[in-house]
Automatic annotation (TrEMBL), chains A, B:
E.C. code: 2.3.2.27
Pathway participation: Protein modification; protein ubiquitination
Keyword Nucleotide-binding found: no
Pfam family, one: Sina_TRAF
Domain Seven-in-absentia protein TRAF-like residue range list: 134-228
Keywords: Metal-binding, Ubl conjugation pathway, Zinc, Zinc-finger
Designated name of the protein: E3 ubiquitin-protein ligase
């Protein structure tokens, strides 16, 4: 009996180690909440040559990109909204999600409330942690970015963008929540549309901003857990009036 | 009838103008909440000569300060906890509140929930906005500081300290809340004791931190309203478990 117990323990240890070393994005459920482990990606946005080459090889099966706007521009086409790469792709808003999934391998999660667990917070800036979130019939892009706005002083910026128009975005409220060691930080706002560039949202500072010291206070073993909830704006307004 | 309506309007305008130009700290009640208007004070902590002179003249009636610790040190004495001045005063914890009120003219407010309205947010760093808050049988010191941790990049730091021991402080939770333009930012934490220096709390970044851009987003006409609530820790823990 003792032998079987030990064997079972060893198997559990192996599963645990396998899980710890599994480097891809992964999802599990803890205490009824959907937890999504998101690994960092070093931003290649400012390395266009390397990026363009990667895009060309990856973009098979997707309509040919509108290279440098040489073709006649269709006003209904939107550029690629991936915050990681300077991607030449253009397409209709309805196909942005499939482009982000297929070309940029950004995962999509279902659920009104999820936990975004960003790993390896110590990595140097610029680094992004990105996931798509499907909720209330729409898709949202959650971006956590480590960036040095002031040289030598990296900060973390977290925001949520609706993959839709600004008018559609006005109907929602998103909440990001950090909670650890008897400290709690909550940010609530209307999501911006992906048609507005994520870079400008971050440079405006209209998002959750964390200094390195605050990020460390909320981190556990190098990972930062951000609770995410999306509601329709009517609920938000009713709460504000209370 | 029209004449009386116009007269009444003119009187209201005059009251409004008088109120706008009244420069001292003032308190009023808006929508059932106690609003305390707090004017900034340029921090003189790093100008000891000027500060010492001001202290000497102001300190009449208060026991003579323990100059440079020449006398035998009583372990029950605590230094002055005023974040504004390098004050040589020392006294028992029980008389810190009266010292802060009498010598440093820091106002004290009663009430479980108050709104701290900091004016003139545009003033250059270092600047402090300070108020004492009496609640649940204890006194708390609320400090909002504009400081350049990184040269040329001022930030705002807000924290609440209990005028009591660290053990007493552990029994409370304070909440600071900013709410404007469909954005909301909440910070909840256990207050630190005034026996720990406010400067170290701010340098550790263990408080509500705002970049200038975020502070502007939450400001209205150069003033920042911070909602403050204090609860006992048991309530906080129960909420966290929900």
């Amino acid at each position: 009996m003792l032998f079987f117990t030990q064997c079972f323990g060893a198997v559990l240890d192996l599963i645990h180690l396998r899980f710890q070393h599994y480097k891809a994005k992964r999802v599990f459920s803890a205490a009824g909440q959907l937890v999504c482990v998101v690994n960092p990606t070093h931003s290649l946005k400012y390395a266009p040559t390397r990026c363009a080459a990667a895009q060309t090889s990856a973009e098979q099966g997707v309509p040919p990109p509108c290279h440098h706007h040489e073709a006649v521009h269709d006003p209904q086409l939107v550029p690629c909204t991936c915050p990681l790469y300077s991607c030449p792709w253009e397409g209709h808003l309805e196909v942005v999600v499939s482009h982000l999934r297929q070309t940029h391998c950004i995962n999509i999660l279902q659920g009104a409330e999820i936990v975004f667990l960003a790993t390896d917070m110590h990595l140097p800036a610029p680094t992004d942690w990105i996931i798509m979130h499907s909720c209330l019939g729409h898709q949202f892009l959650l971006v956590l970015r480590k960036q040095e706005k002031y040289e030598g002083h990296p900060q973390f910026f977290a925001t949520m963008m609706l993959i839709g128009t600004p008018t559609q975005a006005d109907n929602f409220t998103y909440r990001l929540e950090l909670n650890r060691n008897q400290r709690r930080l909550k940010w609530e706002a209307t999501p911006r549309s992906v048609l507005e560039c994520v870079d400008s949202v971050i440079s405006d500072g209209d998002c959750l901003v964390l200094n390195t010291s605050l990020a460390q206070l909320f981190s556990d073993n190098g990972s930062l857990a951000i609770g995410i909830a999306i509601t329709t704006s009517k609920v938000h307004n009713a709460e504000a009036e209370m």
